[in-house]
Amino acid sequence: MRGLGPRIPFPFALQAGYGEAPMTAELVTENPRGGLWYRGHFPSMPVLPGVAMLDLVETAARTLLSVDIAELHRVRFKAMVRPEAATLRVRINESETADATYDFTVEADGVLACAGSFSA
Fold it and tell me: Do the domain assignments include residue 74?
């Protein structure tokens, strides 16, 4: 996945892990409450931009699974992530129906914020 622009790092991972057969990964990090991602999006009601959630998915895929995202599929943003959310959790599971395809979710304090899939 290219073209997201300069990377704005999330705080260190609180938890990270992966499993095998099929490959799975989970990354838990602090929500960057006053971070750069929230500035200007939107001043009167800050929310975490969707591209920030996708950046976190990309970070988890590269770091935990050594997989580069080639193409995103069926990405749906289900809920707004406000600065008040304490943690963000990314789960990535290897698809059982297609090679080099992965399903992912992003949760903010246990609430589904984004879901989709990607091919590597």
Answer: yes
